[in-house]
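Researcher: I'm comparing several assemblies side by side, and this is the next one on my list. It has 280 residues spread over two chains. Same procedure as the others: predict the full complex and return the structure.
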Amino acid sequence: MPATFDRDTMAAHYAKRHKAADGDIAAIYYLPTGAPPNEIRLVEVNRAINSVAEPEPIDFGVASGTDEVHRLVVLDLTPEQWKEILNETRSLPPGWSLKGRQDVGNGRPRRR
Amino acid sequence: MTEEQRLWWAQAQSDHAALVVLRRAGVHDCHLLHYLQMVCEKLAKAYLWRFGTAPPRSHVGFMRFLRALMGRNGADLRRIAKVFEFARPRDMDAWVRQIGPLAYELQNLAPAEANDGPNPEYPWPHESPAECPAEHPFTLWAQLRDSPRGRELLKFIRRTVERFEQYA
């Protein structure tokens, strides 16, 4: 984990860790546009999701009481749901935007 | 739902609400795991009261709950699969098998089950403490937060609490 909070670096750090945790993750995108400065929004595309539930983000507070305090919010999607987001037949959570999204699936940010 | 079920369910709901507050606050992992384990235990007891007798006092009941749930048959199981957002019972069954190891680890976190080792409540070992929960890196919470399977389990546990009336 980086010594002081840098959102972009931290997002890449999470992506690398999450990719290592599950071989079924096809892609991870970091969506900084519109997010509060201390919030990291990740979309994780996963081939192994077998629930038909509507996707919903889940949020975690991290490093409370330190100067690295931040919020991690993860939206897990199937590849089909991700395609629907891209062709705008499905919406992202309110306030989220694809603008400026970065492919961080390899642990390094890459603008799309 | 019987009154016994309602009482255990009410406590599971309250514990889960506290868990969500703690999860968003970013407190030490031990507190998150402590509440999560309690939610699972109380939810399991609420469900197991459906058989009309008190479930064992043991902290380990979540796996028993999952087995009892998947043991329902026919139309009942098809309905339950839908309650939990699975298209077919076989999809839910496959998923329950996948998350089995995480669920097992979770139910065995309680100090009474931890063999005087890592647990989310008390320093260990009891006779000569060498570690405390607040300073211990719990790999289980890392798995729940960092893997899609773990996050799905957290969402499933929320649904078991929120939708209890639909399958109790």
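Model: For your comparison table: Chain A touches chain B through 28 residues (CB under 8 Å).
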